[in-house]
TrEMBL record:
Name the record gives this protein: Sugar ABC transporter substrate-binding protein
Organism of origin: Terrabacter aerolatus
Stretch forming the signal peptide: none
InterPro entries for this protein: Bact_solute-bd_prot1, SBP
SUPFAM superfamilies in UniProt: Periplasmic binding protein-like II
Keyword Signal in annotation: yes
Amino acid sequence: MVAGAVAALSVVAACGGGEGSPIGNAGGDSTKASDGSVTLEFSQWWEPEMPKGALRGIMDDFEKANPGIKVNLISAPYASTQQQTVAGAASKTLADVVGLDGAWVSDFAKQKAIADLSTLMKDSGYDESQLASQIKVGGETYMIPVVNFVYPMFSNDDLLAKAGVSAPPATRTQFADAAKKVTATGNGAYGWILPLAQDAPNGIQNDVMSWAWASGGSMLKDGKPDVTNAAVTSVVTFIKSLWDAKVIAPGALTMKEQDKVEQFTNGRVGMMIDSLAHINLIRQNNPKLKFSISALPAEDGYTGKRGMPYASWGIGVSDSSPHKAQAFKLVQYLMSTDVNAKLSSIANAFPGNTKSVPDFVKSDAMFKTAFDIWNKGVPANEFTGLPTAEDLMRSFDVQLQETLANGQPVNTSLSNVQADWSSKF
């Protein structure tokens, strides 16, 4: 999840599944009716990743519990929502309630595009002790993680079996071997898929740096960039070896997350790193696909706890919204014990309310596996809350592509990233 966790969003958004509706109200009050009722705009990428009608149903229940407040969902895939939200933040035209990735928060808070939730919680008398986590900037909360997604390894069981691989790989050496064997089976199948589109560079967070975190590595030292260290160097060297072996699916340099999921769902890829949010989507779109999930492979010889990459469906309130109090009522509703349990169950994620328990832990073996992976590991996403996190990912992406496509030495690429990142801290 991310997911995480771990992305950015155009003035045009998909509304009700279609393209072309403007996002946000630019600080106006055109959403207040003559009878005093208000309509909140809620932009997010969640609805396309949930069963049809699920999020709308939760909004309908909220409206029944809160007469006088309506919710208009503005929904689009993650990459589109990312572009829309970035543009909306810059122009102060964000929706009243906005889905957030933790990597965006620092920038949006500094732009004064999103509201200080600490103040809204205090004004409403909200008990924040029930929250599993909060994303803060300067000591104040700007995002609340609603649900959290671990990003495990997905394996196409049939492709691995055809390649003579009996179980998902547990180490990098095993992973490289499995990827080569799957690719060697022919028929257009590839061992691994890696999304590196620079306009949506969250692949650096989810699909690249996650390899370092899985083996206890870090890209930071004392809160500052440290990307030339041995852990990060070994990851980039490893990925380059997979690229050189031609086991990574074609199109990686322009591929986005949704493209990765589509190719895996269509049975073209042996393995991918992905969010739990997509399990039911994969099942729905290809019921015959046999796949499993496992912890990310660790560096050979590593015996410590594995860092588990994760991402959150975070939520915030637009600082330009004329309906902040009503917007926070929606935030409170989504974070309430029963609703948060329902939402996390539908989304196949771990709840943001410490008292909520998702149904899938007992009813679905694959999610039980994910829950076990989560509990055995250590949540890891070092991009969350960093300044200009999107730019940091993009900077790394540019240099990684130079290494993969143009043969730039790994050490040169990482030195360039180190210099660029250091200038942004």
